[in-house]
Amino acid sequence: MMFRKTWLVRCFAFALKASLLAALVGQLCSGKESTDVVVLKLAEPYEQVRQHSRSTLPPWEPGDFLAIVTRPATFRFDDARYGFTTPAAKFLAVGMSSRTSKVDSVTLSPQVEALPLDDAVAILLDLQAQLRRSGWRPFQASYWRPIEDESELRRAIRECKSPMTVWNAGTEYQVNLDIRCFGTDPRRERYLITLQFGRQVFEDFPYD
């Protein structure tokens, strides 16, 4: 009888541990699945974007030309050749035609809070590396230099000169990246990145 009770206790303990582990795995998987993401192609209908995204983008109504998420979301440009993905953005706005609702731009800050310089530069370097791997090229690089982790550029960022770099994908798309000061307290330097994505607009800019 004692052996039977001990065996039952052990079985119960094993079952309890298994159920707790299953619950934990379920929570982790659920958390991963619930991560917000905005996925789009340029010129596709906005409501179609909402259907294959998982986000808080609001429904489109006639006359709307901008939609903003209310919860952080990553952005993924859905393109077989030039696609890229950003970190989660607390601010992410999708621009569209107020007449046809077709998407024409995305503006976001790929972070959920203002960041120290090291962290902000790391995000910029990663985004530029993604663009390079996908075939994007710096545009007018002698004027809009790619962001590099070097003392001269860091000094310009700290002096709030808001350096910007422009990248082109063939003759189709353009990305502008810049970094700006957030707050003026030198004891707590923080910075914000802005990414603007859309069709090319700077083809004939008179530099280089």
TrEMBL record:
This protein's name: Lipoprotein
Organism of derivation: Caballeronia arvi
Signal peptide stretch: 1-22
Sorted UniProt keywords: Signal
